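thought: user wants a sequence for this fold. calling inverse folding tool.
action: design(structure=
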């Protein structure tokens, strides 16, 4: 439970050695570099630096190659893997071999050439398919298609006409049609296709006929000039050749996609180098010297001091000052470390205060378990979380998330056993006499199906809220003491820790009269502290009495009676969520049995199907609700008592691989 102590570092080096110093810092992987470029406006004779090398072109090319492979469906990930980074293990020799010997430009050009050729023949294929559609449309046309293009003295047309209009045309335009060539084919129920050859000088008459009888023209294609059989054969052969070439291209691209491991390695490598080069813009440079500022963990100071051995490089190390924006590095043991994932989602705490990770680990797991509140669902979640945490143990973020699910599943099992919920009332409904049902009933201490049991569950949830709120106030006292804000810690911290328990004891004093003296001490001592805290919070003497009184409400103080009551009651959502899990599961159990009974002896099949579907839905819904509300109770109700969001996370300069792991990797040059 600690925020690691950092030291501030200032490096002054000869400007000609800045690239060498950057390389050394990069390889050390202990130095968090700070931006000094703002100082150029305040300090004369210094200027900003700009990156000399840019690897974004490589990264964009790699991204383009991956998008091409994805378009063809190569190296597709499963549902869960699609949300996770790749996990590729490399030896240092394999890593160095990729960096030094893999010809990416040649590989890239080959992929792009194949892809461009594939697009070219796809465009050709599209045109050929249009020709095929045209030929199929006129598949019963008995003449050479070139006749549709007309001659020097004649024009021709082909199109659709409704049968009713065709009869009128043949009747009304009989004389004109006899002096032209008019041919009907593909006559069907509703319409027919007609072919018409006419003199060019009769175009206006033909145009009038087209409009009058609603002939829908089919535009001729210049590429189609033979008979139907000839064109069908030509198109089929062309499509066959196109398909063969496309298959060859796809096969070659698939073979190239087997190099994805190398591409991922290069992508991580160039991303790290790009960040290194971009770090140069955080330097400032004068006429002869370059200045670098940053932070380093205390135990890594010796590594940075090695720079001072050089006559042209001076290293100055000191403690961070109050005005410094100090990055935060969290340090937790293996049990609590997964919950740093949640802390970083919210925002790391301020430097020099308290790391709340262990508290969040315990509280989140308890809240989650109570909210899910079912032994069966908890078991499934714990198994799922444990298996996937082991499977993705090398992926830090993925492992942390699944470990959180494992802890939450375990506490849900405990909560389910204590409330007698195993997929709701599944055991008592379907296996009432089984040994496991008897054991489950013997462990049950809260019967949520009874009014008194539900009330006890509600009271238990609110008591958890009271404890959490008092814990938050206690932590705030520690934070204020570390910040040397002693008066505030005493009067607005310890005061509430005395007054609030004293206030709550008033409700039980009749049942436990022996607590009356202790209650009076807590109540009046806490009240005195809070009034004094409000009194000294303002300078104007006439407003001091008012400030003392309103301090109890929380206007002057960081807390208040109303805040305490509202936040403590907010934890009743744990009761609501836990109860809803059991009720919803029990309702589905009853529904499944009722529906299965309709099928008689074959009811076992719908029973199993309904139970699987409904309990899967319930599990997903309740896990999601438990996760969201447990985060809310931590980040809003609990953190509101003491938490201060800090600056940003400590990220040392160096290789930061997202998708690969290099075992005992030597520094790549």
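)
observation: tool returned 669 residues.
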């Amino acid at each position: 439970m600690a925020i690691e102590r950092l030291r501030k570092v200032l490096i002054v080096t000869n400007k000609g050695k800045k690239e060498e110093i950057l390389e050394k810092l990069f390889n050390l992987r202990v130095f968090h570099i700070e931006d000094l470029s703002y100082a150029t406006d305040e300090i004369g004779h210094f200027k900003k630096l700009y990156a000399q090398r840019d690897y974004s072109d490589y990264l964009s090319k790699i991204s383009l190659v991956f998008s091409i492979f994805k378009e063809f469906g190569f190296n597709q990930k499963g549902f869960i893997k699609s949300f996770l980074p790749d996990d590729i293990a490399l030896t240092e020799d394999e890593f160095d071999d990729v960096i030094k010997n893999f010809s990416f430009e040649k590989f890239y050009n080959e992929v792009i050439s194949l892809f461009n050729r594939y697009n070219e023949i796809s465009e050709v294929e599209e045109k050929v398919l249009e020709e095929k559609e045209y030929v199929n449309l006129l598949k019963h046309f008995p003449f050479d298609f070139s006749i549709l293009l007309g001659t020097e003295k004649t024009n021709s047309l082909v199109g659709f006409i409704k049968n009713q209009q065709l009869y009128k045309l043949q009747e009304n335009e009989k004389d004109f049609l006899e002096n032209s060539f008019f041919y009907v084919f593909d006559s069907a129920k509703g319409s027919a296709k007609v072919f018409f050859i006419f003199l060019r000088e009769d175009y206006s008459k033909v145009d009038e006929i087209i409009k009058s009888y609603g002939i829908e023209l089919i535009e001729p294609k210049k590429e189609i000039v033979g008979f139907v059989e000839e064109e069908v054969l030509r198109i089929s052969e062309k499509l066959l050749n196109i398909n063969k070439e496309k298959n060859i291209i796809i096969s070659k691209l698939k073979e190239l996609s087997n190099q994805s491991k190398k591409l991922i390695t290069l992508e991580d490598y160039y991303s790290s180098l790009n960040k290194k080069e971009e770090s140069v813009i955080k330097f400032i440079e004068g006429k002869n010297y370059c200045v670098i500022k940053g932070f380093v963990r205390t135990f890594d100071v010796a590594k940075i001091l090695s720079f001072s051995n050089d006559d042209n490089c001076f290293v100055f190390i000191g403690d961070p000052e109050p005005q410094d924006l100090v990055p935060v590095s969290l340090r937790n043991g293996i049990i609590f470390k997964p919950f740093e994932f949640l802390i970083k989602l919210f925002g790391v705490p301020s430097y020099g205060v308290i790391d709340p990770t262990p508290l969040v680990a315990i509280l989140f797991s308890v809240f989650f378990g109570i909210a899910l509140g079912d032994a069966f669902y908890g078991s499934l979640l714990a198994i799922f979380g444990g298996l996937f945490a082991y499977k993705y143990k090398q992926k830090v973020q993925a492992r942390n998330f699944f470990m959180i699910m494992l802890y939450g599943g375990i506490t849900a099992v405990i909560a389910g056993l204590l409330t007698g919920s195993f997929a709701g009332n599944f055991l008592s409904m379907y296996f009432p006499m089984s040994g496991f049902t008897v054991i489950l009933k013997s462990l049950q201490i809260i019967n949520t199906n009874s009014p008194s049991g539900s009330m006890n569950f509600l009271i238990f949830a609110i008591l958890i809220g009271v404890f959490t709120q008092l814990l938050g106030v206690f932590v705030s006292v520690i934070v204020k003491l570390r910040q040397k804000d002693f008066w505030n810690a005493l009067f607005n911290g310890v005061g509430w820790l005395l007054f609030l328990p004293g206030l709550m004891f008033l409700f039980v004093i009749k049942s436990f009269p022996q607590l009356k003296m202790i209650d009076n001490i807590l109540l009046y001592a806490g009240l005195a502290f809070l009034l004094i805290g409000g009194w000294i919070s303002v300078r104007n003497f006439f407003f001091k009495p008012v400030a003392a009184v309103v301090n109890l409400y929380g206007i002057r103080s960081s807390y208040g009676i109303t805040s305490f009551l509202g936040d403590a009651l907010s934890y009743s959502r744990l009761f609501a969520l836990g109860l809803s899990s059991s009720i919803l599961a029990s309702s589905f159990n009853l529904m499944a049995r009722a529906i299965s009974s309709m099928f008689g002896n074959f009811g076992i099949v719908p029973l199993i199907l309904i139970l699987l579907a409904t309990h899967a839905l319930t599990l997903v819904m309740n896990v999601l609700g438990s996760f969201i509300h447990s985060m809310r109770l931590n980040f809003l109700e609990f953190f509101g008592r003491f938490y201060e969001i800090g600056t940003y996370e400590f990220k040392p300069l160096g290789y930061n691989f997202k998708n690969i792991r290099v075992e005992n990797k030597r520094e790549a040059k």
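thought: summarizing for user.
answer: Here is the designed sequence. The mean pLDDT is 86.
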